[in-house]
Amino acid sequence: MTEWLRWTAPPAIVLSLASPVYAEQYLTVEQAQKLAFPSATQFVWSPVVYRPDQVAAIEKLSGEKVMSRGEQVWKAQNDNQFLGFFLVDYVIGKHLVIDYAVALDLNGSVKQVEILEYRESYGGEVANPDWLAQFKGKAVHDPLDMERSIRNISGATLSSHHVTEGIKRVLAIYEVCLK
Amino acid sequence: MKSASNSLRRARPLLGTFVEIAVSGGRPAEMNAAIDDAFAAIAEVHRLMSFHEPASDLSRLNSHAWPAAIAVHPWTYQVLELALDLHHRSAGAFDITVASALQALGLLPRAADGVAPPPAAGGAIELCADCHVCIHHPGLTLDLGGIAKGFAVDRAMDALRCHGMPRALVNAGGDMAAFGQDKPVAVHIRDPRNPLAVLYRSAIANEAMATSGGRIDPMRVAGSAGSAVIEPRSGQPVCAIAGATVRAPTCVVADALTKIVMIMGEGSTALLAEYHASAMFIAADGTVQATGNWPETVHLAA
After folding, report:
1. How far apart, in whole angstroms, are the C-alpha atoms of residue B213 and residue B279?
2. Across the strands, what pairs with B23?
3. What is the residue extent of each domain of chain B?
């Protein structure tokens, strides 16, 4: 290793590899539920729809903005024994949409957090509510074009800051609506 | 966990980024147990070496290791040993005491008392017997951000090997390692000057790779790219080199060496050889350079 080899990269590289999105689907809701509560025999769908006063209370408690009208919630049960809550939440940033699941134990503390699905998007479309609407309800099962997605990206780190903030909101939802 | 074949891929928010673990070749229950343990190992490293958690070993070192030594976890001790070794061998280029410069740039929070720590001093950290560490310089602030992530990847790899996983890949926000692959796994490396684009393709198998360079937080500010690597002598961010990628036998070494390559550039040749590593970097002017032992022709993604 006596000398370094040298190339010159074009000043602005834009290529098909990076567009349109880097997307990854990890777990379905069902898979994440089983991982979080292996002993559960059923997950009872118990969605929350917020009243206006609850929105205010959640925002006050968490310091985070409430972005949707309700939350996807399941009760994990082993026969009739209640084991904890399972919530699916999402966070949105300028270039990123993340669906993630939070499992809460009987005391309402975080038992497990798993990323369900992760999409990077580099257009202006994230600001468009119609574009967001397409992810509602079907996000987890939406088949992605895996062949075109880029895996194993190295370099500039993606921050998980927004998920951390989202978990604060989930804990406030528990306090205000589920406890 | 999605695919029909016997492979699993899961991700959790850890180490301030997204940690992805992929395994294949095992039974689903075994693979899930292995991934659980690998995530637990990473969470443990996070707990020990976080700058932000008041109860971490690192925070305890920063607040209590002067004037008397305190005990730390063997993993923290191991990371400090390597960090000090690299500090000496790189003539000070690798420095875990640049936290004050990061604080000045707003990349790390300041201590509550707001006292500016003194500049780096090589002999200020003493590793004593029985995993005890003493800091001989009041107010010195350590930050393991340049090395702990790679160490966490290595501990996750250990956990996956312990479970007998035939093939695995761990990617902690760009610090990654893989074993057991029949053929190298493709890796795409972002252009540090424009992190939304891919600079080049590479591949790894049975080794680790780490990349440092432009920061990006896609959820916050556009165009926030800028180096978080500090030149210890000036206390300023590195700007001649925009990004560096290092391959090495372990991820902790690859992670730390990326900082040294960004600071020393071609001057890091001997050190890379000592650690059986190879490197490539891109200068701010677009010049890409790779060590002679970089294992493949560079496929610039243009």
Report:
1. 13
2. B8, B168
3. 1-51+145-174, 57-135, 183-302
Provide ipTM, 2 decimals: 0.77
Q: How far is B63 from chain A (nearest CA, A)?
A: 25
- CA–CA dist B162, B150 (Å, integer): 19
Q: Specify whether the CB–CB gap between B74 and B135 falls below 8 A.
A: no
- Minimal C-alpha gap between B60 and chain A (Å): 23
Question: Least CA distance to B225: which residue of chain A?
Answer: A156
Residues from chain B contacting residue A163 (CB–CB below 8 Å): 13
Three-state DSSP class for residue B190: strand
| CA B237 from centre of chain | 17
Rounded to an integer, what distance in angstroms lies between the CA atom of residue A29 and that of residue B65?
Answer: 46
Contact at CB, B291 and A1, closer than 8 angstroms = yes
Alpha-carbon distances, residue B52 vs A59, A155, A168, B41 (angstroms): 24, 23, 17, 18
Q: Are B256 and B150 in contact (CB under 8 A)?
A: yes
Architecture of domain B57-135 in CATH?
A: Orthogonal Bundle (1.10)
Nearest to B174 by CA among A7, A84, A85, A22: A22
Which 3 state secondary structure label does DSSP give B58? helix
Report d(CA B227, CA B213) in Å as an integer: 6
pTM equals 0.83
Question: Which residue range(s) make up the domain with A37?
Answer: 22-131+159-178
Give A151's contacts in chain B (Cβ within 8 Å): 186, 188
Torsion of CA B65, B66, B67, B73, to 10 degrees: 10
Q: Can you tell me the distance from the alpha carbon of B30 to that of A120, in angstroms, rounded to the nearest whole number?
A: 31
Question: Is A74 a member of any domain?
Answer: yes
Query: Could you tell me how many residues make up chain B?
Result: 302
Cβ A65 vs Cβ A59: under 8 Å: yes
Sheet holding B299-300, edge to edge: A153-154, B185-191, B194-204, B299-300
B1-51+145-174: CATH, from 3.10.520.10, 3.40.50.720, 3.40.367.20, 3.40.50.10490: 3.10.520.10
pLDDT of chain A, 179 residues: tens digit per residue? 458 888 776 654 434 333 345 677 899 999 999 999 999 999 999 999 999 999 999 999 999 889 888 999 999 999 989 999 999 998 876 567 889 999 999 989 899 999 998 776 544 343 344 433 333 333 333 333 333 334 555 554 556 777 888 888 999 999 999 98
Q: Is A141 on the interface with B (CB under 8 A)?
A: no
- Domain covering B183-302 assigned CATH 3.40.50.300 in the classification: no
Spatial distance between the Cα atoms of B13 and A166, rounded to a whole number of angstroms:
11
Nearest-angstrom CA–CA distance, B290 and B294? 6
